[in-house]
Amino acid sequence: MKQKRLLITAFILSLLFIFTGCQLLSGTQTSFTPHDSLVVHYLDVGQGDAILLVDNNDTMLIDGGNPEYGEAIITYLTDLGITQLDYVVATHNHNDHAGGLTDVVARLDVDNLYLTNSEENKASRNLTAEAKSKNIPISTPSPGTTLSFGSSTINFLGPLSVHDDVNDDSLVMKVTHGAHRFLFTGDMEEVAEKELLAQNLDLEADVLKVGHHGSYSSTGYLFLRTVNPRYSVISCGLNNDYGHPHEETMSRLNDVGSTIFRTDQLGTIIATSEGDQLSFNKTGIPPTQPYQEVDNGLAATPETPANTATLETAAYIGNKNSKVYHLPGCSSLPKESNRIYLKNLEEVHSLGLTPCGVCKPPS
User: What is the DSSP string of 275-298?
Assistant: First the structure.
């Protein structure tokens, strides 16, 4: 039986979550995860990445910052009542992503370790040695791999090849929960971004973990406009030596109307998806440009299946924005203006929709 306990006090029973202290090292953190919700913790680990995903009883830690942050991450997890992780993911082998994971793997129960195919270094060798000493399965998810994660679905999109630059070897993951999509890119730069774009993959996401701590060499215009994130999270250290996030990246994010959250300014940032509602524990930097919805071809017209079924006759209900389809009784149905009613799976497939991770309709 999984040894995960959510420490819930009487005070937080009436709230979705409460967070004590602004930054990862400034105090204990207590979080209540609502049933059938996905909670994403973008941990403040200075100039590095560490992201915790919790959905029902499933847990995943993506990266662990530099080695000196391993102990702080363990404290954060145990304060949440988490002593076991279903998945630990090192997006790539750089110290500021893989370094802190060695302590995590050594101290907690870990079921699976995911690594990328890339040049080994001290950080990756320490991590794999610790995992092997505990007989933890180690593998590299190939593009197209899909995981069921609580009431969410995780799709591995990249990398599509091995690169000269380790940053471009970063594992790229898209997590879908109800109507919301989160994209995690590690330190992927424009070379790998263009490879993903060339495959015409569904990269659109509501929340983007901005690549390479906001470096100008990541998050190119075409990639950014394809992802079209309403919200963007940048993980970087206060007054870091690299000048992250760079002005070029901040300008591009503003141009697409994305609200920006920065760990160097806000500390740990927590996003909660309840399927149809998305909320953050902090207030981001609002853009000066308006956010524009992407026309994904699912708008109802007389030629589409939207007019061939009604709420009473529909077998499935699609979401025009997220490209997800649901059973009519699903708790994560989109608002009425975003719905498209479908009579059968043939109509679902004709629109290229993906099944909801909450109600799990047939595919």
Answer: SS-EEESS--B--SSPP-----S-
